[in-house]
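User: Now give one protein:

AI:
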Amino acid sequence: MPFETIDEVPVDPARARVYEHGWQSWSPTTTYPADATSWRPVRPPTQVMSYRPGRPGPERGFQGEGLLAVDPGDGGAVRLYAAGDGVGEVASIRASLVDGRVRVSADGPVEQSSHGSIEGGLAAWGDAFARTVGAAPPRPAPTVWCSWYHYFTEVTEADVDENLGALVAHDLPVDVVQVDDGWQSEIGDWLTLSGRFASLSGLVGRVRDAGRRTGIWVAPFLVSQRSETAREHPDWLLRDAAGDPVDAGFNWDAPLYALDATHPGVRGYLTEAFTRLRGYGIDYFKIDFIYAGALDGVRHDGSAPLEAYRSGVRLIREAIGAESYLLGCGAPILPSVGLVDAMRVSADVAPTYEPADGDASQPSQYGATISTVGRAWQHGRFWVNDPDCVVARPQIERRAEWAEVVARYGGLRASSDRIAALDDWGLETTRRLLTEVPPPTPFS
């Protein structure tokens, strides 16, 4: 659908500001001067993996995905524009400064409202949207230790055991020990272990014996070209109108494909994988890169992309049970409301402050900070916000600044250092942040 002008807002060009809401967890979300241009992907795969696939932003100005607000800067009312549906259909909303006016256009249905401030408007809209979608009040999040930001894909079972022992020795208030990427044999092969893990059930037992629960990372709708799943079940892959596999990005040194979550084989496979993991005693699940379930393509049952995506996440919830805690990441934000307990609301944090390629959707403290602040209003309304993990070892640039962002805005609190690598400041800061956890009520 082409973009059509829906409003023109007279503004003070020197003071006017535009709030742009990004498509998914990692998409930059913040408020900009009205004469700026928002962040754009630097590398082609990033359009698919961190922005909205198939809908690149304009050369100049802004493109909010389902949500955009304009503060005219002259004392007048803030105008907020929101997708009429927001779940099954999410309009892209553009804004640009032209001759002292902000011109707003959209490629789908949009509702407009007026407010006293951007923050107040987002909060009011969020309350109404949560009611419309039927989102339940968020459950408190457990505190977590996560393997990712020290070990990355090379984590071993021995690494988890070492840190489990350190958590006990230091009496750190961690409820869940979460094994991140690296436990599985390949992206998409969730029924077989990497050579670094011997037994998930044995690990779960040791975690339980230490008085903790076990969590695990899965990218359920994504498969690597190298995976047995892609090789043995090509009919499970989401395909375009020409019959080719849909491009889901490039990572782990391989092309990525998406699974068609409406295909009976895929649904059976996901049910088996998550039921098995739950059967081991795992009750905390981080599902990542789940944008793949919402990519455009021809699906087995003819479903629209967001309908299929929501059906796939519901299938996972059914397999793990209502009592398990479900964290979304790399997820289309508005279409996920009502599906998960917690949601990553920012780019990945990193040991460095600036993103390596100058793209705020990529790992960095800067990118994680701007979207954590820009989506703070969602905490306690849609879910528990996850700003990403506490990283407090001495090698982390500007670690005190990141700790303060987590302290102010972090709903879900997770440590992701090797405990033995923490100095006195890092250990005490980690202890403080895991102890002083805010309730799942909206931030003021």
